[in-house]
Design brief:
Elements lengths: L2 E5 L2 E3 L5 E8 L8 E6 L5 E7 L6 E3 L7 E6 L4 E6 L8 E7 L9 E5 L2
Parallel strand pairs: 2-10
Antiparallel strand pairs: 1-3, 3-8, 4-5, 4-9, 5-6, 7-8, 9-10
């Protein structure tokens, strides 16, 4: 059974940091590019960041550039999103997804609030 399980979400104050993790199972993780998407309440789902199979090429949405870092550990079948300098507008459900949308996690909620 294919699974993508996100963790690391929670509530943080503005300016704080969180590290999201996504553990993959049931497929060959290293054969897939990966991405983080988010859904901000009341808005469409949007790309946060993506990474290629080897972890050597990354791409960020403008809002994430300079604050967020996507990475992966293929030996552990894990994807990460380090989020720094968080803002209230980063409040969203964050999803771990394969690059071509084949597999989706259920998401983890990040709330940025004072």
């Amino acid at each position: 059974e294919v699974q993508l399980v996100e963790s690391g979400g929670g509530m943080v104050q503005p300016g704080g940091s969180l590290r999201l993790s996504c553990t993959a199972s049931g497929f060959i993780f290293s054969n897939y590019g990966m991405k983080w998407l988010r859904r901000v309440p009341g808005k469409e789902r949007e790309l946060v960041a993506s990474i290629d199979m080897a972890g050597s090429s990354t791409h960020y949405a403008d809002f994430a550039n300079g604050r967020f870092t996507i990475s992966r550990d293929n030996a552990k079948n894990e994807l990460y999103l380090q989020m720094n300098s968080l803002k209230p507008e980063d409040t969203a459900q964050y999803y771990c997804v394969t690059l071509a949308d084949q597999y989706w996690g259920k998401g983890t909620l990040v709330t940025v609030s004072s």
